[in-house]
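Form 7-S
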Amino acid sequence: MPLNLLLDNAGDYERTHQILLYVLFKEGRLAEHLGLPASKEVGWEDEKRLFDLTLKGADGVTGIEVKTWATVSDDQASRQRTWSRKDRRRLVYILLGFAEFEGVRGDEVPGEHHIGARALRDAAVELTKDDRSGASVRGLAEAYARWLERHLQERLHSLHADKAKWGRLHYSVAYDLLRSAVGLPADIYYVANPAGGVQILNFSEAWHDLEVGDLRGTKLYWELIDGWPYFKIGPVPEGRDARAVRAELREILLATAKSEGLPLVQTGRTGEYMSLAYADRSATDFFSGAKLDAKKARNYLLTCHKVHERTATAWRKR
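Output:
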């Protein structure tokens, strides 16, 4: 089918999804199957080009942003959320690729809705069975549902495929599974650097202020960097010897980790955000192919978290 040919060759481009969604919203009942308000008019990059699509109906305006292999910038999310705070406005993000896992940073606004690949596939499947839509719309929905299903399978395949090809997606999928297994709030994001960039799983509620003397404001935190647990501190106030502060805190960390049976390797890297130590990589092998050993992952990562919490407490009591 020509539609399959189009999706096979251009399915990774946001513009392709923008066009397909425009047609399915306009000619079909995709909004209904996604649980969105019915629309009388579908807009294309209006609201001063703030959104990819808009749905306009009796219940107001829904702004829709589509992302695949790029994330929503903090500035873009801020402007879109500001727009959506006015009466009778809604904000929807359709997120595919690693954009679904990295999400949209910052505080969500009331009524903000995130739609991922699985929900979009399910809605497209329902549209194929909707006799109120014409045969051409159902055919387009069928091709789209087929592509989305393949996209979901590729995400699982990325867990054990060549990381040179799937690197960022590999870590996004793995981190999402780990985040669910450990049960701690965590953010997934990518940090570019000259060496090629790293993928981060940061436990967002595990940041501690080291409020001791003039160290007020220095942060202690832990995160996964390309799958390795790292324990780190944030900027040390000007006038203090950052290396000495790190050495003292590292001593507490290593002693605490030893008491919990968590082997750590100290690191000598310095900078504004400094690493104290990292865990042995062999201990973080939680996957067998695409299957996660959830119990092993949870126990290990909760031990890391416990060491982090005990270190912060010991520092404050020293």
